[in-house]
Amino acid sequence: MRPFHTIAVAHRDILEGRLTMDVFAADLWEVFRGTAPDEYSDPT
After folding, report:
1. Which segments of the chain have a pLDDT < 50?
2. Cα–Cα distance between 44 and 25 in angstroms, integer?
3. Model-level pTM greater than 0.90?
4. How far is CA 2 from CA 9, 10, 14, 43, in A?
């Protein structure tokens, strides 16, 4: 089995070091209210 990091390409915000712990997990209340970061509110 090949290591995961040789198969998957990390998302741009991870590669650029912009993913912080406060946006690591979706706050479903913010998603519901429409105030979540784009990573969680924009399906594209």
Report:
1. none
2. 17
3. no
4. 14, 16, 21, 29
